[in-house]
Amino acid sequence: MFKYGKKAGIMSIVLAALAIIPLLAVMYFIPQLPESVPMEFSAGVATRFSNRYELLLVPAFAFLLCMATYMSAGKQARAHEEESESAAVFTAERYLRNGIVTGVVLNLANAYLLYMAVTGSVPGM
To answer: Is residue 90 within 8 Å of residue 6, measured between CB atoms?
Structure first.
């Protein structure tokens, strides 16, 4: 993505990091967790338990969504290259920015789930 400027290149690196880091974090914690981990709480009490591998769902979804956004950014930017270079740069940056925001939100959700699974409690309770 450095083809569309330094900013787009840095944004693509950030997007890739947001896609990969949660997978690595979950893969680090999964072997340390029991087979059954709390996944839902009501009034501070665990109400649903699940297999520890269910924790891979959010990071996998985040990875797929971030990579799809990255690919879309490149495709749409190439489509706008014929109009002008600035339109291509703007398009790439816009798609990458949206991917970064989505990645951050999904990483926060992943951190919350991972915290609950590791500690067995809800933050703040």
So the answer is: no
Q: What is the DSSP letter of 123?
A: T
Residue pair 122/41 in contact (Cβ under 8 Å)? The answer is yes
Residue 121's identity, in one-letter code, is S
One-letter amino acid identity for 25? A
Tens-binned pLDDT, residue by residue, of the chain (125 aa) = 788 999 999 999 999 999 999 999 999 999 998 898 888 888 778 888 889 898 899 999 999 999 999 999 999 999 999 889 999 999 999 999 999 999 999 999 999 888 888 887 777 66
Q: Considering the entire predicted model, what is its pTM? A: 0.85
Domain ranges within the chain, ordered by starting residue = 2-119
Question: Sign of the CA dihedral 65, 71, 74, 79?
Answer: negative
Long-range contacts of 68-71 (CB under 8 A, 24+ apart): 69/15, 69/95, 69/96, 69/98, 69/99, 69/102, 70/1, 70/12, 70/15, 70/16, 70/96, 70/99
